[in-house]
Amino acid sequence: MFKRLGRLGLAALTLATAPLLADDDAPQARERWHQAIDQRYGVLVDASERLEASADRFCEQPDTSHRRRLTQDWLEAYQAWQAVRFVDFGPIEQQSRAWQLQFWPDRKNLVGRKMQAWLAADQPPSAEQIADGSVAAQGFPALEYLLFDDAMQDDEALTHPVACGLMRAIANHLADGTSALRRDWQRFGDHYRHTASYTGATLHGALLALETLEDKRLGSPMGLTGGAPNGYLAEAWRSGRSIRLIEGTLHGLEDTFLPGLKTLLARRGEAALADDFREALDRTRRRAAKMSSGLAPALDDGAAFSELQGLHVQIGQLRHQLEEIGGTLGLARGFNASDGD
């Protein structure tokens, strides 16, 4: 998951953004951000509830059409999480909620090991048992294991009572957890809107999202940050949906982060910077949307790898643009989103 800003990092950011935080347009930007994030959390809740219903339908009538619908609902809910993943402050920090939604990176295959242990049990777990257990068995990657792992491709593997009960418990936990997250975000609203430091924290979250995309979600599996290319380092490698998740993150930044950013820049007479960033963000998202969904297969395909490199470059350019925008808004030049603990 995204690294949270430590106390020293947040203090440094607050000091660096003093001119911005004193500006009258910052509360307006936070108001827009709060509303947009609330709407995005609402999309996540709705998608998670559809996923829960799909899991129930499949287990009651496990046919091809219900499995196809279940797979699509899993992807849509996972993308809905990606779209609001840049919010790394507030209620999402409580109770390891981000890890509950997505345990990643998973270099030791903890998701696989935890799921195998649950599948070997005599009885499926309840949602309460899932909630009290490991975060590696609670979120979208755990469901991905059930839907896509090689061990689950036998026609009867997912329809086994233990496997289906496990899937329903995880889906139920996701639906309950996302609903509670949105309620807590709404209660968090007054504090967010009236606390100046959250302007910088929101900018930081977006910058860190781009940094993580560039360095970890693309660079690491592509072998661009040290070591050989390794598809197992990619998100959603079992399902081959890594690029679809990246597309979801870019869409969320465009739809949820950009409106508040434009408010900040417009009051400073710099609306053109927001327009330039929007155009670059849209180009990058559209490029990802046209690419094959999987990252790992592209590592052994010259043409596909070249497309990945192009996407990696464009995301790096987006990151640089947002760093420049941060300087315009009062962030110290050279601010690094990975500062902190």
TrEMBL record:
Gene Ontology CC annotations of this record: cell envelope
Keyword flag Lyase: no
Domain Imelysin-like: 39-311
Domain of life: Bacteria
Primary location class: other
Keywords of this entry: Signal
Signal peptide (residue range): 1-22
Subcellular locations according to the entry: Cell envelope
Protein name: Imelysin-like domain-containing protein
